[in-house]
TrEMBL record:
This is Esterase. The chain crosses the membrane at residues 120-142. Keywords: Membrane, Transmembrane, Transmembrane helix. Residues 1-110, 155-186 are annotated as: Disordered. One of its GO terms (molecular function) is acyltransferase activity, transferring groups other than amino-acyl groups. PANTHER family: DIACYLGLYCEROL ACYLTRANSFERASE_MYCOLYLTRANSFERASE AG85A, ENTEROCHELIN ESTERASE-RELATED. Residues 79-90 have a biased composition (Basic and acidic residues). Residues 16-64, 165-175 have a biased composition (Gly residues). The lineage of its organism: Bacteria, Bacillati, Actinomycetota, Actinomycetes, Kitasatosporales.
Length: 467
């Protein structure tokens, strides 16, 4: 599927951007036009997603907002009845005279009326009970009202270990008996429920201050159902760090159940197409005014260190992970695809693979102005050539994705990279072209299911069941 571009590229690997920003002509802060849409149905929704304008983030540059929960009107009980069965009047008229003659008016129709009313109230009570059960089930499924777990503490293991890590095992950071596994090192993070999937697994969220970057931000996490399976109690799990496009602040849209990333990974793992990945979903940028290329730009927040050091450290502190780079990968869309792609190329000793969907290929944040040397050290083209020239022993695996309806600049950028660096030396590439796909996250989840998640899973280490 790869082909060389027809031109339009700047010298030294750069290429002309539309609107001075991301390939789709969008951007934020200095970029005219705002963010490009990142998913037609709304992102990052807590079960339903953000209220969107034009299918993506608000074009004024502000983050999306949560819609109010759908209201449920009050139950009307007896549909306006006064509690009397209309048959009472019928029976009274029909039989009252007969009973008066036979019994001298002693009983009239009291027995029949009592039986009829008892039957009516039995039906009413039963109906209320059924409606209550059905409504409760719906509310529980939608996590509304008293059935919601949102904000409740979340533990991702059978109990915290003595050193503060989670997920059942011996002391923090000690061996499990499996030489590949790193047990939780602690300290334990105080995760709160952000969402719950249909299979009962939970998405947790915590705000941390990275010890290495000094940056404070949110990270959402998810563990598949296999993580609590007793047969994997001593085994580490691979980690997939999922990065969003758009502003990547104040939320990471992969944390919402509306895009189906977590449920899809659960399904693919059951089908044998995917490893049962742990997910880490950090914010990508420190604000919604500028983009930072997932890098340590001089004078700015150290977002490169945040993504490649502090977020992995959080996972090691709280989960059973794998010691080697075979258990660590990125995925991302648009600007998040670039950040994940660059992270793997810059740190091949720590990360083995990435799914880069509709990504930029070169750094283009306006914050790099005056720092050309530092910018060059965060350019995947430069980093890729270096891996080839030095014959790196750390092979890296890049699964690119784009939709056929994406802007030509995006498709050509990926094709040019594959033609120049793909499957050369330690760099292995795969391309998923999504028919009818646009520049949005739902398109990219579809592409992952088509081939990309299976391709990187084949390169990654998975959990080992106990014998």
């Amino acid at each position: 599927m790869a082909h060389s571009p027809n031109g339009g590229y700047r010298p030294n690997g750069g290429y002309q951007q539309q609107g001075g920003g991301h390939p789709q002509g969008g951007g934020f802060g200095p970029r005219p036009g705002g963010y490009p849409p990142q998913g037609g149905g709304g992102y990052g929704g807590q079960d339903r997603g953000y209220q969107q304008q034009g299918g993506g983030y608000r074009q004024q540059g502000g983050p999306g907002t949560y819609p109010p929960a759908d209201g449920y009107g009050p139950y009307n009980g007896q549909d306006g009845r006064d509690g009397r069965d209309p048959r009472d009047d019928q029976y009274g008229d029909q039989y009252g005279g007969q009973y008066d003659d036979q019994y001298d008016g002693q009983y009239q129709s009291q027995g029949r009326q009592r039986a009829s009313r008892a039957k009516f109230w039995t039906i009413v009570v039963a109906s209320i009970a059924i409606v209550g059960l059905l409504t409760g089930g719906v509310l529980k499924y939608l996590e509304i009202g008293p059935f919601s777990k949102k904000g409740d503490p979340v533990s991702f293991g059978q109990g915290a270990d003595k050193n503060g890590g989670q997920a059942g095992g011996a002391g923090g950071g000690t061996d499990s008996g499996d030489s590949k596994t790193l047990m939780p090192t602690g300290p334990q993070a105080q995760f709160k429920n952000a969402n719950t999937l249909g299979d009962g697994t939970e998405i947790g969220v915590v705000t941390i201050t990275g010890k290495k970057s000094g940056f404070t931000g949110k990270v959402w996490v998810w563990a598949p159902k296999q993580y609590k399976d007793p047969k994997y109690a001593k085994s580490g799990f691979p980690v997939l760090i999922a990065l969003p496009g758009g502003p990547g602040y104040p939320n990471n849209y992969w944390m919402g159940t509306d895009l189906g990333l977590e449920s899809s990974i659960a399904k693919w793992a059951d089908e044998g197409k995917s490893k049962p990945f742990l997910l880490a979903m950090p914010i990508l940028n420190p604000n919604d005014k500028n983009y930072y290329d997932g890098s340590d730009i001089p004078g700015q927040a150290k977002m490169g260190t945040w993504l490649t050091e502090d977020v992995p450290d959080l996972m090691k502190q709280n989960f059973r992970t794998l010691k080697s780079r075979d258990g660590w990968a990125f995925m991302g869309s648009s600007s998040g695809g670039f950040a994940g792609f660059k992270a793997v190329m810059k740190h091949p000793d720590k990360f083995k693979a990435v799914i880069a969907s509709g990504p930029d290929i070169v750094p283009d944040s306006p914050l790099w102005k005056g720092y050309d040397a530092e910018k060059r050290e965060n350019n995947p083209e430069v980093l890729s050539q270096r891996l080839i020239d030095t014959k790196s022993k750390n092979d890296v695996y890049v699964a690119f994705q784009y939709g056929t309806l994406e802007a030509a600049i995006t498709r050509q950028g990926v094709d040019k990279y594959i033609a120049t660096y793909g499957n050369k030396g330690p760099i292995h590439t795969h391309l998923e072209v999504i028919q009818g796909g646009k520049h949005d996250a739902k398109t990219y989840v579809k592409g992952m299911g088509n081939s990309s998640i299976q391709w990187i899973s084949e390169q990654m280490e998975g959990p080992t069941p106990s014998s």
